[in-house]
């Protein structure tokens, strides 16, 4: 007998959530696959039960070896942050899918609100890292949770970033006998007790901090302030970030982040991506962390002198180098080696020696180099008149892999 698979969405009320034909599919199947809680809804099932736990890859390897009728139980809608897409990729047979009402759909019904205009994100089995920039400024947000990323943990996390403009609706055990829903402030949610199965919905009650576009004013950042301030100046920052060609989901490295100004602006543009920053000066790193909270960008900032310290960073789509600490050639080799296809590296240099070294190093790695000399002057009042004061000239060096002529592929050597 060949393998046939039906995937059926099931609610928290178990068998009661299923249409009669779906129950019949289950009763007539040879194998019933699901979580322990889902399988417990069918105590009299006569076929073989297979529990989903541990490696999904191993589970689907097992399923591919079966012959007969398989029913795979999934929570709610299998294609809404569920097992659906993964299952279809892993199985080489046609899969019939019968979705149920999703937990998010049911939560909005209990809340009495439309949900087509909401932003959806999941931290179920995922890290909460980066949630702040993903949701900042959005009017209505639905969050799928788990036992680690509980309503309490979410509330404490949002309080760290000062997101007091949101009130929260928590829907627990939807559709089941233990269903409970209610509204909370972040402070109330941080101290509350909640069931393990829940949906968290944030709704903005009033405006938060102004989410301005690219080009945050220099004085907005916490920073060390010698004569001219240790920060990548706004005008240079804008041009440098423009050359990185960021996408919404880009992975970005900021080497020598100092105040974090570039990393933070990148995080507000690549809000669905990941931002990694490294800084050798502890005092600057503390300023960077203050700025992260102020501007609601949950980047990974580490203390170290690159290239040491970046081993655990995800491979980047874009790299900004504001300071090299004297290890320029070794650093550029690491960045060029780990850069993803079509990625870009932007390096700011203020001396012709660093400009020369960077250009030669990039060319040795098989990268094309473009250089822009930026000379900026800002207006300053002088009595009743206006004068201009020049900033330090900066070389913006942009590097990308050479294209092999006629092949449209990136050169690796």
TrEMBL record:
Keywords: Cobalamin biosynthesis, Methyltransferase, S-adenosyl-L-methionine, Transferase
Organism this protein belongs to: Paenibacillus selenitireducens
Tetrapyrrole methylase domain boundaries: 7-182
Pfam entry (one): TP_methylase
GO biological process: cobalamin biosynthetic process; methylation
Pathway of action: Cofactor biosynthesis; adenosylcobalamin biosynthesis
Name of the protein described by the UniProt record: Cobalamin biosynthesis protein CbiE
Gene3D superfamilies: Cobalt-precorrin-4 Transmethylase, Domain 1, Methyltransferase, Cobalt-precorrin-4 Transmethylase, Domain 2, Vaccinia Virus protein VP39
Record keyword Transferase present: yes
GO molecular function: protein methyltransferase activity
């Amino acid at each position: 007998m060949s393998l046939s698979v039906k995937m059926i969405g099931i609610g928290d009320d178990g068998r009661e959530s299923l249409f009669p034909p779906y129950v019949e599919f289950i009763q007539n199947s040879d194998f019933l696959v699901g979580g322990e809680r889902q399988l417990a809804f069918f105590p009299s099932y006569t076929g073989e039960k297979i529990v989903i736990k541990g490696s999904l890859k191993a589970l689907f390897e097992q399923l591919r070896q079966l012959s007969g009728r398989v029913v795979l139980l999934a929570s709610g809608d299998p294609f809404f942050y569920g097992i659906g897409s993964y299952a279809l990729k892993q199985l080489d047979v046609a899969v019939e899918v019968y979705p149920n009402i999703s937990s998010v759909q049911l939560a909005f019904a209990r809340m009495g609100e439309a949900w087509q205009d909401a932003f959806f994100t999941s931290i179920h089995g995922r890290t909460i890292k980066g949630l702040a920039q993903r949701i900042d400024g959005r009017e209505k947000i639905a969050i799928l949770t788990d036992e680690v990323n509980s309503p309490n943990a979410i509330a404490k996390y949002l309080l760290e970033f000062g997101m007091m403009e949101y009130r929260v609706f928590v829907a627990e055990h939807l559709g089941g006998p233990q269903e409970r829903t209610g509204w909370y402030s972040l402070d109330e949610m941080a101290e509350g007790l909640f069931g393990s199965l829940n949906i968290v919905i944030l709704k903005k009650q009033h405006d938060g901090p102004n989410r301005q576009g690219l080009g945050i004013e220099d004085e907005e950042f916490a920073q060390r302030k010698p004569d001219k301030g240790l920060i990548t100046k706004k005008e240079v920052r804008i041009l440098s970030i423009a050359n990185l060609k960021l996408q919404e989901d880009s992975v970005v490295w900021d080497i020598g982040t100092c105040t974090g100004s570039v990393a933070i602006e990148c995080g507000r543009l690549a809000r669905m991506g990941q931002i990694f920053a490294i800084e050798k000066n502890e005092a600057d790193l503390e300023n960077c962390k203050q700025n992260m909270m102020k501007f609601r960008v949950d980047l990974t900032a580490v203390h170290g002198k690159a290239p040491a310290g970046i081993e655990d960073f995800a491979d980047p789509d874009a790299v900004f180098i504001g300071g090299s600490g004297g290890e320029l050639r070794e650093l550029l080799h690491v960045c060029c080696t780990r850069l993803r296809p079509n990625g870009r590296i932007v390096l700011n240099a203020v001396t012709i020696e660093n400009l020369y070294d960077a250009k030669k190093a990039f060319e040795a790695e098989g990268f094309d180099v473009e250089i822009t000399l930026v000379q900026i002057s800002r207006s300053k009042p002088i009595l009743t008149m206006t004068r201009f004061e020049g900033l330090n000239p900066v070389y913006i060096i942009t590097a990308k892999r050479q294209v092999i002529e006629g092949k449209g592929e990136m050169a690796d050597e």
